[in-house]
Structure formats: structure tokens, C-alpha cells
Amino acid sequence: MNVHSIKSGMGKESGDFSDQAENYRKELEQFRKEHERLKLLFHVTRNISKELVLDRLLMLIMDEVKNVLNCDRCTVFVLDNEKNELWARVAHGEKEIRFPSHLGIAGHVAMTGEVLNIPDAYADPRFNRNIDKKTGYRTRNILTAPMRNKLGERIGVFQALNKFSGPFTSGDEDLLDTISVIAATQIENARLYEEQKKTFDSFIETLASTIDARDPMTAGHSKRIALYADAVAQVVKMSPQEREVLRTAALLHDYGKIAVREAVLTKEGRLTKVEYDHIKSHSTYTKNILEKINFSRQLKDVPLIASSHHERMDGKGYPDGLIADAIPKLGRILAVVDVFDALTSKRHYRDRMEFRKVLKILTNGSGPGRILPRCFQKDQA
Ligand SMILES: [Fe+2]
Question: Residue 220 burial by CB count (10 A; 0-12/13-18/19+): exposed, middle or buried?
């Protein structure tokens, strides 16, 4: 082997090393990009998986996608198969958009399932310039991707507008495609949750109406109590979860009256002790009946709260004679709004009381150890 061949051999080896180094560098760069992508996806998944209220979820998804794609706007259009429309309940800068599901770029993507990456919106004939004209917004570039559920069915469309650093890239397309699968699953969960909640709410409101309907004089009482209780909840800045518990307990607080004889419930004039005791039993019935309902974990205290609306701070209330703090906090709110509604409404045996007088009675009956005046006993039943 001569010197020349040794040198050329070394040259080949060093060339191999630099090729290998370049490959490693590219692979490393690839890993780094993939790592960043997974981090973003993890971040998006973690954030949107916490939200089950559809409006808030859509808003959250749009914000997340806007940040991840580094663009100015993002809209999630949901497909309404019954009306053949696409709608966006909450869009950045607008309130609600609804249009036939085959129109525009979003409609095209909803129909075909294609991803459309349009670097210059005004150069694309499918772009509807009227929306910009109406809103004064200037669309430069658009990335629109279908949103598919686990079964591969299209349930909506993602539309991102105006990437800050130029047109959307193929990496953005991949990212949006992956996010759309995650988002679609969560949107379907939220829709299911919303449907179940609507069913449950209508069931609770129907139960409340059946009680209110038994006595025309107290018609609307349960709904008014729910309204007043919620007003108090807002003033004291209760959490949405606690407000929901209070509202449900308010609607059902008198449900035990279903077990009270109508002749006693609607009797005009003074009640005998036996009749009054019979009316008082409604709070125990409320608890016993509501305990049979399979409330969610969040609403598990509803029977106890609902049945404690006749307890008194001095322990002379019913059904359990609980004293002060032993009475559930939400039950105490119910007691106050129940008295408020009873006194400001007409009864078989008296007219509605003047608002100022009602406030005075409530003030006098408030505070630890204070008792509500005797005149409430019948009013509150
Ligand atoms: Fe009651």
C-alpha cells in the first residue's frame, strides 16, 4: 500500500464519518421536532380533556389550535346532520355562524374530507370574500381540515386563518389532523354529556312541576326558589358545581309533598296539630324519595340539602332539629329563600306581604342562634 492509497483510504473514512455525523444530526433534528410535536399534542390533550361543557370546550379547542399553529384565528365548525348545516357556536370575534354544509371552503372540506391548505385566500375562487367585507377582517392564508370521530365519520371542520410566519406548512397539516382526532372525541363526549344533562334537567323540572301543580296557590314555588337560591349563589360567588347542587335541591325541596294529602295541603284556614304534623312530614318524605334517585357524585348531597329547608338555627326546626352549623350551608340558603317566597306570595289564608316587612322579618330571624319568628311555621311548610 503506497502513501497515496493510505491517504485516499483515510479520505474515504473521514468522508464516511462526516456522512454519518450528518445523518445523526438529521435524525436528532427529526427526534427534536417529533418531541416538540408530542409535547404540543400532550399539552392540547391534557387541556381539552378537562372540559365537558360544549361551548367552553369549543372555545378552548380554538384557543389551543390558534396557539399551536401560531395563527390569528381558529374556528371549529360542527356538522349538524339533521339540518345539513355547519355551525360554530363560538368563534373568535363573532357570536354564531351557521350555513349550509356544502358552502365555502369549510363546506368543501366537510363534504370531501380533503385537507385544504390555501396560501393565498384571495387567489382561490372557493374563498368567500363577502365574509371579510362584512367583518372588515383580511384573510391571507387558510388551513382547513376535516374533524373525524373514532369511526372515521366527519363530524365537523377545523379552520385556521392567517399564520403569523407565512403560509401554513405540511407539518401544520399533520398537527391539525392529529389534533382533530383528539378534539372530535372530546366534542362527542361533550355532546353526549350535554344531551344527558338536558334529559336530567328536564326530568328534575318535571318533578318540580308535578309538586307545584298540586296546589294552584303555590304554583311556580319550586322554580322561584331555584331562581332566588341561584341569585344568592351568584352573590356569594359559589362555584358552578355548588350552584348546580343548590339549584337541583331547590327544585326538589318540597317533593315530599307528593305524600301529603291534598285536603290538608290546600286547606284554607288554621291547621290542626295533626294536620300540621302531617304537612311537616313532607321534608322527611323529600329525603326518603330523593335518596332513591341515583344522583351523580356531584349531586349526591341533594337529598340531605333539600330535606333540611325547615331546620332552624336554634334547633327547633324539622325533621332532625339540627342546630346552626350542623344544618348544611346550602340547606340554610334554601330555608331563607323558601321563607322569602312564602311571604311574598299569596296564600289560602293571607295576602302577600309587603317587601319591606319581609326583609325586616328575614333580618330579625338571621344570625347564629337567632330563630325565625313563629309566624313562619305555617308559611314555610
Ligand atoms: Fe317545605
Answer: middle
Distance 151 CA to ligand 1 centre (A): 50
Digit-coded pLDDT (tens) for 155-190: 999 999 999 998 999 989 988 888 888 888 898 899
The number of residues making up the chain comes to 381
Q: How far is the CA of 356 from the centre of ligand 1 (A)?
A: 23
Q: How far is CA 340 from the centre of its chain?
A: 30
| Residue 357 CA from chain centroid, whole number | 39
Distance 202 CA to ligand 1 centre (A): 22
Measured in Å, residue 181 CA sits from the centre of ligand 1 at 50
Kindly give the distance from the C-alpha atom of residue 233 to the centroid of ligand 1, in angstroms, as a whole number: 20
Residue type, 130: N
Give the Å distance between the CA of 299 and the centre of ligand 1.
20
Q: If you measure from the C-alpha of residue 302 to the centroid of ligand 1, how many angstroms do you get, rounded to a whole number?
A: 15
Distance CA 160, CA 158 (A): 7
In the reported structure, the alpha carbon of residue 261 is separated from the centroid of ligand 1 by a whole-number distance in angstroms of: 14
CA of 342 to the centre of ligand 1 (A): 10
Kindly report, residue by residue over 285-333, the tens digit of the pLDDT.
999 999 999 999 999 999 999 999 999 888 889 999 998 889 999 999 9
Report CA(219)–ligand 1 centroid distance (Å): 13
How far is the centre of ligand 1, averaged over its atoms, from the C-alpha of 241 (Å)?
A: 24
In this prediction the pTM is 0.70
Query: Of the ranges 102-106, 208-212, 323-327, 363-367, which one carries the lowest mean pLDDT score?
Result: 363-367
User: For cell 370546550, what's the residue?
Assistant: 57
- From ligand 1's centre to the CA of 277, what distance in Å? 12
d(CA 283, CA 319): 6
Structural domains of the chain sorted by starting position, each given as residue range(s) with its CATH number in brackets: 12-191 (3.30.450.40), 213-380 (1.10.3210.10)
Q: Residue 300 C-alpha to ligand 1 middle, in angstroms?
A: 20
In our burial notation (b when 16+ CB lie closer than 10 A, e otherwise), range 152-173 reads eebbbbbbbbbbeeeebeeebb
Give the CA diameter of the chain: 126
Going along the chain, which residue ranges are E strands?
Answer: 71-80, 85-88, 97-100, 116-118, 142-148, 154-163
